[in-house]
Structures are given as structure tokens and as C-alpha cells.
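Follow-up to my earlier ticket, as requested here are the two runs.
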Amino acid sequence: MADRPSWDNYFMEIARVVATRSTCLRRSVGAVLVLERRLLATGYNGTPSGLIHCHEAGCTRERLKIPSGERHELCRGLHAEQNAIIQAAIHGVAIKGCRLYSTTFPCVVCAKMLVNAGIRSICLSSDYPDALAKEIFSEAGVIIDQL
């Protein structure tokens, strides 16, 4: 019998597959919300449902040469973490106490949303330079693990 992946590796691999659905031209991110080893919601970064994707509309932030992590309000898309929270809300799924698996560290906007949604821990596969997000998670007592 082949070695089974740890729970963290299992759910992170699912987040990586979810990221392949991304419609962002800059970065593909996937996120999954898990409670008691049960996957409750997924999300990837991209435009809202029903809107044209960035590969057709173009990327305003790219056109204006805005560095990564700045001027999020100019982006047509939602972040993977935001879409996972929205998916849970649409289907009436409570996510308080969940563990988030994300292919990258959440930005400050997502950090605030995750704290208010009651996310208690996060498992990441890569870092993202957002000092304020890290400060918010630390102050809120959110546990951060990186694979």
C-alpha cells in the first residue's frame, strides 16, 4: 500500500487543484475551508460569476504596472479566500472554526474577512509579503502553518 498523505498535504493538494480554475492573469490561487477533516467550501481567484474573464477584459493592475499586493480595489477579481467564504454563505454552510488551506498567504483584506468569519488556523504552501495581514492574524490568535 502506498504511503497516504497527511491531512495537511491532502487538503493542500486539493487547494492546488482548485487553483487551476483561476482566471487571474497574474497568479493562480486556490483555497479550501475544512472543519474536522471535512471539506466545506472551495474558492479560486477570478472575476465574479457571469462577468467576462481577465484574459478577455485585460488586467487593469497589469496595464498600470501596479506591484503585487497594492491597489486591490482596481482588480476585477475576487481572491480565492473571498470566494470560499462566499461559496459557504451561498450554500448556508457555517465555517466558524474552520482551517483554511491556501496556496498563498492571504492579503490584509482577506485576513480581516477570515478573522471575522471565525477561521482559527491556516495552512499555506507559499508566503506573501503582507506584514499587516500577519499582524492581524497574530493579534487574533490565528495559527499559521506553512508546508
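Run two:
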Amino acid sequence: MAEKRDYYEVLGVSKGCSEDELKKAYRQMAKKYHPDLNPGDKEAEKNFKEVNEAYEVLSDSQKRQRYDQFGHAGVDPSYGAGGAGGAYGGGFSGAGFDFGDIGDIFENFFGGGFGGSRRANPNAPRRGSDRHATVTISFVEAAKGVKKEVTVNKSESCPDCGGTGAAKGTAPKTCPDCGGTGQVRVQQRSPLGVISTTRPCDRCGGKGKTIEKPCTACRGTGRTNKNKKLEINIPAGIDDAQTIVLRGQGDAGHNGGPAGDLNVTVSVRPDPIFERRGFDLHCEIPITYSQAVFGAEITVPTLDGKVKYTVPEGTQPGTVFRLRGKGIQHLNSFGKGDLYVKVTIEVPTNLSREQKDALRTFENAMDENNYTKRKSFFDKLKDYMGGKD
């Protein structure tokens, strides 16, 4: 099996990073290698899958704990299968000491963590691998929910042989060399005595069974790969980089084991009007100087259409108004966030001579009492300068 990269290295974070740091790093890496931004780039596609796999483990507190303690073997039992038995499963039987006994002890306490792969039943049911996919949706679709179709290439049980790998009318047979265990014991003499080790059976390849007449459809593997289209319900309120898990839609299990899951990562396109912060929305609306002075009824965009809002007389630049319940639907729950509207006052440009004269006349008619903030600032400045003008 190819050596997997360290999950922390994949995401570019330290082992003791926080959940926020982990999520931020995942978003950056997922965006960097996203298939939509790297069309046709197989290396980027490979890296994207690697990033999703790393985040899936490290974002789960239990999986992360097992990974920190045991590495890849703690979250993927099939990782490195056979290696532990070959390296540690032997014994000095001639010297009255057998490492196989140590394997039994560790197997009883840790469920086969030491030498367990050596003694594992090759015909026992095993869960299929998880698959990963991505789907890109609009900002409004994320807010309101939408149905999307994704295509995933997954491994399924061969329909011709029912997953046995044997041609129709035949069946796999127990391997005569290993007796169905998938492994054989080998003894070698050494200066310390006879060393007893185990290794995968050459005849059956560690499967414990042999197939005399392989199925032509799957070439004896018992499995076929096919593209399958699935419709997924994306709930209202989902955020960018969140993952939807479709149970049992991954690779088929082995020996009657359950299928893996399909993890669909949602990518949300930015919106030109709204910015999302949690379940609240924020937007900016420009108004004229006159509207700010006299007050006015303005049109405010929302996810449910346009609404009218009355800006009060004397509104200042940067004032934020709150529209309750006009934000994002709470994910898998009731209620919505709020919409915060920030008004900015646009200074007019390209004025004609008549407009400038009218504005000067207006300004000359004003006094300090009409500018509350300006008067307050200069009063403070005067006190700061010791009463000097």
C-alpha cells in the first residue's frame, strides 16, 4: 500500500491546532485544489480528495484522537494490513519465547492492534470505503435549500457473480495451503533458535479462498466500478465547505459488510449583494445627501424579495439598520437570522455651476448647531488645546 501523507501536513496545520484553525486551513486548501478552479488537472483533483479525507478525520474529535495515537491505522484498519504480522508476529519458539504470544495479549486488550492483522479472518465482513464528491451552488440556493444531482464513481458488487469473483455455476474454494486463514507460518533457524513468522499465503494472495474459474465481467475481483448519479437534498442554511453525508452510498462492502458513505462537500458561490456572517446577512445601500437629511423611503433587497424601509431624518453615514428575520434559515432548525443594512451617503460629483452655487448658499445658511458631531469634536479639541482657538 502507498504511504499516506500525514493529515496535519496535508492541511498545513500543527498537531495541536484549534477547530477554527483547522476549518480555516481546510477552506483555503479546498479552494486551492477545487476541481471547478482546476479543470482537467488530475493532480489538483487528487490533492482535493486528499484534503477532504484529512479534514473528515481531523474534524471528528474521536477520529482525531485515534489518529493522534495510532496514525492512519487508527482510522483505517486496512492501512498497512499484513505489515504488523510480518515484522512483529514471529517468535523464538526454539528458545521458549514466542512473539505470537505477545500478539495474543495485545489482541485481547486492543482488539488486534498488535499482530491483529496477522490473525484477522480474511473472509470476515468489512465496511466499504467512503467516497467524496463536491457540488457548487449559488448563495440563494444555499440560503433556501435545493436539490442537486451528483455523479460519483463507486465500487459495487459485480452483478454477474454476486461479488464472489467466480464464474456463474461455480464458487470459490477454501485455499488448501492456508486452510482459509489467508496466511501461512514460516520457520527459519537463527543463532537464537527457530524464528517463527507469518506471511500472506502465496496461493490465494491472503484471501483464504481460490477461484478456479474467474468471472469474466469483473475478472475475479467480485467488484466493478461504475458512475452513479444521485440526487441530494441540500438543506436551507448550509454554509460554504460544509459536508453532507449520504450513508451507504460509498463503495460496496467486502464479504457482506456494509457499504461506505458518500461525503458531498458543498461549495457556495459568493453573492454580489449579501455577505453572510453566521446566520445573519449584511449589505450596504447608498443614499443621497438629501435622503439622509430629510429622511426617505428606500428599497431594501432581501432573500424573499424587495421591501420598503423608511430612513429617518438626519441619518448619519455608516448607520446600520436591523431587519429581523430576514437573514439565513437556521440549519435543520426553526428561525432565521437578521439582515443588517448599512447606509452610506454618496457625495455628488460632476456638479454644474448652478448646483454648486445653490450648495454654497445652503452651506452659508447653516451654523454650528446644525452639525452636532462637528461641534462636539471642535469643543473637545479646544479643551485638549487648553482653551486656545
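The only thing I checked on run two: The longest strand covers residues 146-157. Let me know what else you need.
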